[in-house]
């Protein structure tokens, strides 16, 4: 910056406008067939939950139909959803996972 005396260079500092990324909730859905232990495993493996937290979330989904696994930027959320669905499919469980804007 420089208010500028005669002949002085004028230096204008510009800051790029950084926008915070939108966040997305990753949700798991209840169903009648996926074993409780498999849901706990998925929450530990892909969402870094402790066994206790994973068990609480799984039971809440079992009772309420849906639950939040975590909140992530778009591409991370998309990857988690794909990992859960693919792992469930490989194990022939119908567990479903989706994302929505936070
Ligand atoms: N309802 C399932 C059962 O009784 C357990 C379950 C919990 C399934 C959470 C999916 O996201 C889920 N075996």
TrEMBL record:
<dbReference type="InterPro" id="IPR003769">
    <property type="entry name" value="ClpS_core"/>
</dbReference>
<dbReference type="Pfam" id="PF02617">
    <property type="entry name" value="ClpS"/>
</dbReference>
<keyword id="KW-0645">Protease</keyword>
<comment type="similarity">
    <text>Belongs to the ClpS family.</text>
</comment>
<comment type="function">
    <text>Involved in the modulation of the specificity of the ClpAP-mediated ATP-dependent protein degradation.</text>
</comment>
<dbReference type="GO" id="GO:0008233">
    <property type="term" value="F:peptidase activity"/>
</dbReference>
<feature type="domain" description="Adaptor protein ClpS core">
    <location>
        <begin position="19"/>
        <end position="98"/>
    </location>
</feature>
<protein>
    <recommendedName>
        <fullName>ATP-dependent Clp protease adapter protein ClpS</fullName>
    </recommendedName>
</protein>
<dbReference type="InterPro" id="IPR022935">
    <property type="entry name" value="ClpS"/>
</dbReference>
<dbReference type="InterPro" id="IPR014719">
    <property type="entry name" value="Ribosomal_bL12_C/ClpS-like"/>
</dbReference>
<dbReference type="GO" id="GO:0030163">
    <property type="term" value="P:protein catabolic process"/>
</dbReference>
<dbReference type="GO" id="GO:0006508">
    <property type="term" value="P:proteolysis"/>
</dbReference>
<comment type="subunit">
    <text>Binds to the N-terminal domain of the chaperone ClpA.</text>
</comment>
<keyword id="KW-0378">Hydrolase</keyword>
